[in-house]
Structure formats: C-alpha cells, structure tokens
Structure prediction request, 389 residues.
Amino acid sequence: MLVLTGGPGTGKTTLVNSLVRILEKKGQRIVLASPTGRAAKRLSEVTGREAKTIHRLLEFSPKEGGFKRNEDNPLDADLVVIDEASMVDILLMNHLLKAIPTAATLLLVGDVDQLPSVGPGNVLKDVMASGCVETVILTEIFRQAQESLIIVNAHRVNRGEFPQLKPQQGQRPDFYYIEKDTPEEVLGVIKELCVKRLPNAFHLSPLDDIQVMTPMHRGTVGVANLNAELQALLNPEGKVITRGGRLFRTNDKVMQIKNNYEKDVFNGDIGRLVGIDLDEQKVQVKFEDRVVDYELSDLDDLVLAYAISIHKSQGAEYPAVVVPLLSQHYIMLQRNLLYTAITRAKRLVVLVGSKRAIAIAVKNNKVQHRYTKLASRLSGKLATASEID
Prediction:
C-alpha cells in the first residue's frame, strides 16, 4: 500500500501515468477508480484508460443492498489506484479494502489538504498520520505549473499566505480579484460575470464552463438565492415543473444530491434538464453521455446547479470558477475551503468580495476535528480498557 499526495502542479498525475504504463508493460492487471463519476471521468481522461466510480468497481447491487465484490469475490487486479482519496469516507473504504486481493497493491492518490469526505471519517489523513503506510508527499511546483497564478495561489493559501492578486512577469493572467464589500454588490458582479464579461472575454459558455461556488447556503450570495437569480438570467424561458416550492425549467443546470444506485447517479453529479413531460409528471436529465428519467418524487434529489456549495465541488474540475467571499461568511471561512475552491478551476478563478474575508479564510486553519481513532488503531497505540480506568 502506498499514499501519493501533493498539491496541484506537483506531478501526481504524471507519476500515476508513469506507474500505470510501466506496470502494464510488466503484465500487471490495473484498475482505476475514484469516489465520484466526475472524478472518475477526469482520471480516465488524464490516463487514457477506463476509470470507474468505486461503487461501480465494487459492483453495487441495489436489489441486494450491498457490493458483489468483497473478500469472497475479490477484484481481478494486481494494482488498484484510487484517485481523489481524500473524498473516500470510512464506510466506503471498508468495503473497498475487503475487495482488494491480499497479493495486490493499493495506491491512494489525493490532496490531503482539501476538505475531508462528506461522509464520516478522515481516512486519507488518518492513514498518513498512522505512520504505517509508506507515503510520498510531493512539494515541488514544476516550472510549467509556476506560470499559472491559480496553482501559485493554491499553494500560497495552503501555506497560510495571502494570495497574489496580480500576475508577475511570465505568469498567466488566470486568477482575478474584484473587490466589493456588500452582498448586493457581489451579487451584481457575479451576474455580470456569468452573463457577459467572462463569456465575452474568455469565450466561455455560461452553463457549461462557468461554475459559481459559494461558502454558504443562505443569504444574498448563498446557494439558494444565487441559483434563483442566475436561473432567471441564464434560462428565463421553457417548460416549467415545480416540486416542493422549487421551480425547474427545461435546459436548467441541475445537480444530484443523493446517491441513487438504481439510476447510477451520485451525490454531486451535474447534468442538464433536457425534457419535461407534464402529463406523465416526469423529467429527463442528461448526465455526460446518457439521459436519466426522473419521476416527480425523484425531483427531491435534484437541485439547481448554477451555483453550488464549495463542499459539493469536491472531485470536480471546471474551466472557470467564480467565488464570492464576504466577512459575513466568517463561520465557513476556512483555509481548506478556499484552497479547495481555487483548485477546482482549470483555466480561470475569479474571487469577488472583500480582502478581509480572504484574510480570515487564509488565517483560519482550525478545521473541524473528526474523532475517528483510525490512526491510533492502525499504529496499535490504542489505549486499553485498564489504562483508561
């Protein structure tokens, strides 16, 4: 077992590609997987090989309510590579480990400084902290990556340094900051960015390429209000269906918020609402290259996705991200939250808000502690009952 971790631009992908190519030449059977469909698709794109979600790899059966791959029916593999491993919670990791043959190797690849898994546990961090698993930590940003202000600022934020707001000589202008102090001003700028400025200046599609990500759910620049405002601007017409006070239109950008194994769509998957049948009370959503049918009751699992929470962005990449940051968000302003937001962008980051809010996030490295006991159990240093007494 090996852990490979490091920030953006340090060579994780290059190393994984090299290992896979070398071991394939040696006749090794290699399987690639990630916790989410989006992350699996990205892993497949960068390796040129098939990558699955962990659930699909373990052959989840909705009828049986469990995984077909386990200790009695292990995976047919010599090397199992799991990307975005920081997103894997303790329950899924338990099932995964049962399905890995004892003679195989497990490679966990991820960025330990990102937000932890949505589910319970802090597996990647605990495995590293145990000292029981060989760990490679990549720290050097290579020259090509140094030209990107996105990558430079991701590392600055991760070190607790204020981001560099203007490119220096030789750096790409891919990171922008627009200073605004009130929620109303920030909302106005975000609407203008998504509708006109970014599409015109960078030839970006407002629906396909630009993702607004915010720390909060409520408030003027929270997820709910941003979605209502952006839906009205970007998709004002079309057939309408409502559910629980929420309004959906054809061509809306939507996100699945619960794992649905029968439909093979998972928490965080983003798609486009392509059809509404009011007579049948059904809708159709296109995810990547397939269309999924939803009954009216299934709409509880869908939300608009013009804006999403930063937590929901884990494992995804977007051409451009727009992030509102105000001191009113102070409850959520944490270093790993801002770091995660910046590292989701491939081509462009735009921060809109106050420098004070950015400074609060950068300085706040007090992440919520998760009481897991995994690191101590792995290292064998767990206190005995007599010692506790």
